Amino acid sequence: MKKTLQKIQSAVRDLPLAEGRNETDVPFVTAWRCTGKEIPMPDGENPYIYIVLDGLLRLYTPSGIMDYMAGQYSISKIDTPLAGTVLAFSDRRDFLALCVEFTASDVISTVLDLDNDLTERIANGDMQQQAMLAADAAVSASVYRLLCAMRQAVRSEFLRRNILREIICCVLCGSCGRQLLQSVANIGSVEEIYEVNRWIKENFRDSFTVEALAERKNMSVSQFPQKFKSAVGMGPLQCQKRLRLTEARRLMLEEDKNVTQASIAVGCESLSQFICDYRRMFGTAPKEDILGIQRRLQECAGFLEKQARGAGDASDIL
Questions:
Q1: Least enclosed by CB within 10 Å: which of 20, 205, 277, 317?
Q2: What's the CA gap between 279 and 298, in Å, rounded?
Q3: C-alpha pair distances (Å), 164 with each of 1, 133, 149, 234
Q4: 3-state class (DSSP) for residue 31
Q5: Where do runs of H (alpha helix) occur along 124-258?
Q6: Which helix H or strand E contains 276, and what residues bound it?
Q7: Per-residue confidence (pLDDT) for residue 117, from 0 to 100
Q8: pLDDT in tens, 231-251
Q9: Alpha carbon of 238 to those of 219, 244, 276: distances in Å?
Q10: Cα gap 252→201, rounded to integer Å
Q11: What pLDDT is stored for residue 61 in this prediction?
Q12: Confidence band of 79 (pLDDT split at 50, 70, 90)
């Protein structure tokens, strides 16, 4: 795993990297280099995997505060934010990642070809932990094969498509497989939902109606809410609320906003309703939640310091 990661790093470092998004010689594969604390996440309409190559990434999502070290990856889904935070830069004082995009059709065609009851086990969360860890490790190896295949003497779209299917298979069998399956396999025309999802992320501070969202994609007002919910497990307005609360949490943690300032910044008009919704989502009131997270972050920092000294191994998702 470590050697494969180093090979991918080397291949990407050989590119003429600029700040932000960089095209590679592989279709739908982009390199991301950032030197600032805020990391822009890919904002395309296609699902993707985002592999951290060098540095440490933090994402604030409704599902929790997710930290990714080099070699780990996230997948795009409804609660993937538009930007992440650099917790640690590489030795070159930058952050480096690789994004591999695919279509809903790519995923669905791969799912249809999976062995026997594998799809059912993924959907039901019945995959063994050891098997998922092995599949996660195989993702990097498959991505490296994709980079190499497109540099061979005979450049083959056939190889690219089939290695891409191999990557999707590894992701489906890994720790993020169930999320990916739920994101794209339950509905048709998933690209439309991804476009609406992106719009909500960019405009969650503003007020909007479900009818206005349906009109954006010329979709039936009666069918759109159910189609959206089938894809993401919640309605559009609930999605907006979760994005507002998650951003408020980030503002209180990273920018030291107080409860009132954070609620106003994300577009909430009622402070009492904001606190009620926050408690319902995160399990405790905003002040207590932030104090608890800060305490756990200090504990995590202690573990990471021990790891750097070779005295332990720690990874944590808050």
A1: 317
A2: 23
A3: 19, 19, 11, 29
A4: strand
A5: 129-149, 157-173, 177-184, 190-203, 210-216, 224-232, 236-254
A6: helix 271-282
A7: 83
A8: 677 888 998 999 999 999 999
A9: 19, 10, 14
A10: 19
A11: 85
A12: low
